[in-house]
Amino acid sequence: MQRQAMDPDWDDLRVFLAVARGESLSAAGRVLKRDPATVGRRIARLEEAMGAALFQRAPSGYGLTVAGERLLAHAEAVEQAVAQGVEALSGAADRLTGQVRIGAPDGCANFLLPRVCAGIRARHPGLDMQIVALPRVVNLSRREADFAITVSPPAAGRLTVQKITDYHLHLVAHRDYLATARPIERLEDVAAHPVIGYIPDMIFDAELDYLAEIGAEGVALASNAVSVQLGFLREAAGLGIAHDFSLPFVPGLQKVLAGTFSLTRSYYLVRHAADARNGRLHRVGDMIAQGLRAEVARLEAMA
Length: 303
Prior knowledge:
The protein is of the alpha/beta class. Helix content is 40%, strand content 22%.
C-alpha cells in the first residue's frame, strides 16, 4: 500500500528552497548557516515525508526532479506568504525593511545605482541595499539577487520583465588623444586608431557587442569591465564607445562624430515571477525603476 505523503513545515521548505537555489548542500548550508550534512539529513527526511524524490544527485550538484519542480512553486508561495505576514504584523506598512540585492552590469552598477540606492535608503533606513556588479546576467532562479538589471529582456525562465528606460552611447576619446591623433571626420577613419572595448569572447549579451557598429575589426585595449575601459580612455590610449551617463565621471572625455554616430540601448528590471505578490519588493522595484530613469536623464543632460 502506498504511504500517504505528510505536509512539510515551513522550516523544511526553507531547507528545500535553499538546496534548489544553491544546487548543492554546501551552498544551502552557507545560506542557512547549517552544516551540509545536517542539510542533507533534512532533505532526506523531507523526501521520506513527501513520499517522493525531490532531487537528482549528481557530481555536478543537486537538480530538481519532476516532483521537486512541482513543490518549488508551492514552496515559493509559502515563502512569500510568510514574508508578507511578518511585514503586516510588524506594523511596517509604510516603512520598508530588510535586505534587497540588485544584480546589474557594471556600467549601471558603477554610475547609476549608487545614487539611486542611497536615495531609496534615505527614505527607508531599515533597508539594506546591496549592488552586485557582474560581467554576466544574474541568475534569479538561484536567488543570486532579488532584482536584475539587464540590457536585453530575458526570453526564458519564470520571470517578470519591465522596461525601465533607454540610454545612449557615443564614440569618445580623451582630449589629449584627439590633440595629437589623426583627424576623425568619418566613421571609416576609426580604423586608423586603436579601439578600446570589451574582450570579444567575454561579451555576455549581444547588445554589448559594439565593434560591428563602428566597423572595427578588433580591440587594441580590452576589458570586461566598463570602468577599466574608461580608465584606458582616461589615459588617452585610443577611441571607445561609452555610456553618455558615464561621461560626467571622467573629465576630459569628448564625444567623437556625435552628429553622425550614436547607439541606443535599454535597461530592463527583471524579477522572479514568484515575487509578483510581494508588496515590499514591488515597492522597491518601482523606486529602482523610477530612480534609474531620473538618473539616466540627469547624467545624460550633463554629458
